[in-house]
Amino acid sequence: MGTQKKTLTWVGWVLTGLIGLLMVFSASGKLMKVPEVVEQISKFGYSEDLIQVIGVLEVCSVIIFLIPRTAILGAVLLTGYLGALSRLMFAFTTFPFWAPRFSPRWLGWRCT
Predict the structure, then answer these.
(1) Does pTM top 0.85 for this prediction?
(2) pLDDT at 28
């Protein structure tokens, strides 16, 4: 396996870090039961009790994603999480604005 440029490695770490921060920010809204988050998730038919469970699963997936040895498993878990979320968004909206969130995660993993 050849060596890659330092720039590419840094780009991968920066993308991975940004995705991790965004996902932790998303999970924090669920864990703190922010009223806007509760309202939006309730529109999809989930109960308030389930919101914190979803937040904990999201944090666990992000932690697995940020550990280099388990980054592939974390990327698969986050892709599954966001895939289910995208399915809900497609069902309730007409514009698929969640789809672009998949590519940067895999790009960050491939560059590290």
Answers:
(1) no
(2) 92
Question: CB-based contacts of 56: which residues, under 8 Å, 6+ apart?
Answer: 27, 31
pLDDT-based confidence at residue 102 (cuts at 50, 70, 90): low
Helix (H, G, I), strand (E, B) or coil at 103: helix
Q: How far is it, in rounded angstroms, from Cα 92 to Cα 96?
A: 10
Per-residue pLDDT, averaged over 36-59, amounts to 85
- Please state, in angstroms and rounded to a whole number, the distance separating the CA atoms of residues 74 and 90: 24
Cα(94)–Cα(78) distance, integer angstroms: 23
Structure tokens at 87: 């399915």
Q: Where are the domains of the chain?
A: 6-108
- The candidate with the shortest Cα–Cα distance to 80, out of 102, 111, 52, 104, is 102
